[in-house]
UniProtKB/TrEMBL annotation:
Pfam families: BatD (PF13584). This is Protein BatD. The keyword tRNA processing does not apply. Residues 1-24 form the signal peptide. Keywords: Membrane, Signal, Transmembrane, Transmembrane helix. InterPro entries: BatD. The chain crosses the membrane at residues 451-470. The keyword Ligase does not apply.
Length: 593
C-alpha cells in the first residue's frame, strides 16, 4: 500500500511539477554565406526526465551539416528543500544557401500533452565570410600563462535599455503600460540611475520599481540576454495628440576579463545606456453620443450609494456616500452632478480614493461623501445618481446609476414669527390716554448721559459689526471653495508636516517622502485652489506661473517634488538625501509662497 501511494505521489510530481522553459538561439545573427551557424534548442526544467527531439521548422534556405546534444543538471537547496534543474540542449550546425535576410521559424516541442514553441530568428547573410581570418605568422604560441586572446565583445547590440509600451495608440484617459528593461550580454558594475523618464502629459501610477537587480534569461532574435525589469508604470494621457515619453538613462561600467595571467585586475569601460523615446498617439474621446453626465472616466466602472445614518434628528447632517469603483483612470474621475433635492441643502463633498494593481491594470475606487442638511421634517428621497464613462474596448459610452435612497428628518429647527394683524401691526392695547407732562420730573433729571449707556453703546456697535462679518464669513465659506481652502491651507500644512515628521522619527523613509509630497501638493492646491495632485509637473509649473509665483520658487518646488519621487520609486539608484534638511527646506519654501 505504501509503495502504491509513493508511486502515485511520484507520478503527480512529474505531471504537475514539470514546468519547462523552451528556447532557441544562434551563436550569431550576421554571417557570410561560407560560414556556419550553430542553432541551439534548449529544454530546461525541474525533473523533466526524457525529452523527445524538438520539431525543426522549414530549413530549405540552409544546409544541415550535422547535430549533437548535451545534458546538464544543477542541484540547489533553498530553505532546506532540494530542487533539481535539468537542461537538455539540441545543437544543429547549419550553413546558409543564399545571401540576404533569412528566417529560422519557430521550433516546436510536444511534451507531456502540451505544445511549446520558440520565437523566430532572423539571420543576415552576406557574401563570403565574416569570420576574422587567422593571424599571420603560422600557429600562435601556446603558453600556460596566457590564454588565447579573445576579441572584446562590442557594447552595441549586447547592452540595451528598452522601453516597451503595450499600446502606441490609445484614447485620452486610457491606460498605457510601459516597461523599462535592461538587456545585457556583458558583465556590468556600478550601475546607477542617471535620468528618470519624463512623462509630460500623462497621469502616472507606479506598478513596479526594482529595488535590486534580478536578471532572468531572455532570447531576442536568437540571442540570449540577461534581462532585468527596472521600472513598470501605468500612464493615463490627459490630452489628445502626439505625446512623447522621454528616455530613461543609466550609467555604469562594463567589466572585461583580464587578457593575460599577469593582468591582476579586470578591465573596465564606462558606459551610459539610454532607452529610446516613445511616441504615443492619443485619440480624443468621441463627441458623438457623449452624455451630459460624463465625468471623465475611461475604463469599466460600477457605482453605488449609501446613507449614514439613515435618519436625521435635530438638524444633524446625513452623509451621502457615492462610490465609483472599477478599472481605469479612477483618480481622474470628477464628482458626479447631483440633482437638487427639495428640502435638503447639499454641501461640498469630501473625496477619497484608493488604487491597486490587478493583472497589470490600475483598479480601485473613488468616494464622494456629501453632507446633506435637511431643512424640514419628514421623508426625504435622494433620486438615482447617474454617471457615464467611456469604454475603449467597445469604443462607446455607458451610463450607470445608483438606487433611490430615503431618509427621515425630525426636530429640524424652524423660525417662528410673531402673530401680526392683517395690517402687519401687532396689537399691544386698546386704551389711549392723554399725555400729561410732569414738569417736576423734567427739572430733576440730570443733563449728563449715564455711564453705563456710554459703555454699552459702542460695544453694541462693535458686536453688531462682528456679527455681520461672521455671517458674511460663514456664507462665503459655504459658497466659495477657494476661500475656504485658502483659509485652511496653513492649518492643514502644519498637520501634514507633523505627519511627515512622525514618519521621519520612525525612520520610515518611504512614508516620509510620500507624506512630504502630499504636504506640498496639498498646500499648493489649497493655497491657489487648484487640483495639484491631478497635474503633471509641466502643468503645475504653468499653473503656478499664472498665479504669479516667481520662476525660481517654482523650480525649487518642482525640484523637491522630483526628489521625493526619486527617493520613493528609485531609492536604490539615487544618492542619499538628508531628510531633516529636506523637511526644513520645504517648510521654508512653502511659508514664502
Amino acid at each position: 500500500m505504501k509503495r502504491n501511494i509513493f508511486g502515485l505521489l511520484l507520478m503527480l510530481s512529474v505531471l504537475f511539477g514539470a514546468e519547462i522553459n523552451f528556447t532557441a538561439a544562434v551563436d550569431r545573427t550576421q554571417v557570410g554565406i561560407d560560414d556556419q551557424i550553430q542553432l541551439t534548442v534548449s529544454v530546461s526544467g525541474q525533473d523533466i526526465g526524457r525529452v523527445p527531439n524538438p520539431e525543426l521548422p522549414d530549413l530549405t534556405d540552409f544546409d544541415q551539416l550535422g547535430s549533437t546534444s548535451s545534458q546538464s543538471t544543477s542541484i540547489s537547496i533553498i530553505n532546506g528543500r532540494m530542487s533539481q534543474q535539468q537542461t537538455i540542449s539540441f545543437i544543429y550546425f547549419l550553413r546558409p544557401k543564399r545571401t540576404g535576410t533569412l528566417t529560422i521559424g519557430p521550433c516546436k516541442l510536444n511534451f507531456k500533452g502540451q505544445t511549446y514553441s520558440t520565437e523566430p530568428i532572423t539571420i543576415q547573410v552576406e557574401k563570403g565570410s565574416v569570420q576574422k581570418p587567422p593571424a599571420s605568422g603560422g600557429q600562435p604560441r601556446i603558453s600556460p600563462f596566457q590564454p588565447p586572446t579573445q576579441e572584446a565583445v562590442p557594447i552595441e547590440g549586447n547592452l540595451m535599455l528598452v522601453a516597451s509600451p503595450d499600446k502606441r495608440t490609445v484614447y485620452k484617459g486610457e491606460q498605457v503600460t510601459v516597461d523599462f528593461t535592461l538587456y545585457t550580454r556583458l558583465q556590468l558594475g556600478n550601475l546607477s540611475l542617471d535620468k528618470l523618464p519624463n512623462f509630460s502629459g500623462f497621469w502616472v501610477e507606479k506598478i513596479y520599481d526594482a529595488r535590486e537587480l534580478n536578471f532572468t534569461e531572455r532570447v531576442i532574435n536568437g540571442k540570449r540576454y540577461s534581462a532585468c525589469l527596472l521600472k513598470k508604470v501605468a500612464l493615463f494621457p490627459m490630452q489628445a495628440g502626439e505625446l512623447t515619453i522621454e528616455p530613461m538613462s543609466l550609467t555604469g561600467t562594463v567589466i572585461r576579463p583580464a587578457r593575460s595571467f599577469f593582468d591582476f585586475f579586470d578591465e573596465t569601460e564606462p558606459v551610459k545606456i539610454q532607452s529610446q523615446s516613445i511616441k504615443i498617439n492619443v485619440l480624443p474621446l468621441p463627441e458623438t453620443g457623449k452624455p451630459v453626465d460624463f465625468t471623465g472616466g475611461v475604463g469599466e466602472f460600477n457605482i453605488k450609494a449609501s446613507l449614514t445614518p439613515d435618519s436625521s434628528v435635530n438638524g444633524e447632517p446625513v452623509n451621502l456616500t457615492i462610490k465609483i469603483s472599477g478599472t481605469g483612470n479612477i483618480k481622474l474621475i470628477d464628482k458626479p452632478n447631483l440633482p437638487p433635492i427639495t428640502g435638503i441643502k447639499i454641501l461640498d463633498p469630501e473625496v477619497n480614493d484608493k488604487t491597486s494593481i490587478e493583472g497589470g491594470r490600475i483598479s480601485g475606487y473613488k468616494e464622494f461623501k456629501y453632507p446633506l442638511l435637511p431643512e424640514r421634517d419628514g421623508r426625504h428621497e435622494v433620486p438615482s445618481i447617474k454617471i457615464s464613462y467611456f469604454d475603449p474596448k467597445d469604443k462607446s459610452y455607458h451610463t450607470i446609476g445608483t438606487e433611490k435612497l430615503v431618509f427621515t428628518a425630525t426636530g429640524t429647527q424652524k423660525i417662528v414669527s410673531s402673530p401680526l394683524t392683517e395690517t402687519g401691526i401687532k396689537v399691544l392695547g386698546t386704551d389711549i390716554h392723554h399725555i400729561k407732562p410732569n414738569l417736576t420730573l423734567l427739572k430733576s433729571q440730570s443733563d449728563q448721559t449715564p455711564l453705563w449707556l456710554v459703555i454699552i453703546y459702542p460695544l453694541s456697535i462693535v458686536f453688531l459689526l462682528v456679527a455681520v462679518f461672521y455671517r458674511q464669513h460663514k456664507n462665503r465659506l459655504e459658497k466659495d471653495v477657494g476661500y475656504a481652502r485658502r483659509l485652511r491651507s496653513g492649518r492643514m500644512m502644519k498637520k501634514r508636516f507633523s505627519e511627515a515628521s512622525k514618519f521621519l522619527a520612525q525612520k520610515n523613509e518611504k512614508e516620509f517622502y510620500a507624506a512630504l509630497a502630499r504636504a506640498i501638493f496639498g498646500y499648493v492646491g489649497d493655497r491657489f485652489n487648484i487640483q495639484a495632485m491631478a497635474m503633471t509637473k509641466e502643468e503645475l509649473k504653468d499653473e503656478l506661473a499664472k498665479k504669479g509665483l516667481s520662476e525660481d520658487r517654482v523650480s525649487q518646488l518642482l525640484k523637491i517634488i522630483e526628489t521625493c519621487e526619486q527617493a520613493r520609486f528609485a531609492k536604490a539608484m539615487v544618492a542619499d538625501v538628508n531628510c531633516q534638511n529636506l523637511l526644513r527646506e520645504t517648510k521654508e519654501l512653502l511659508s514664502r509662497l
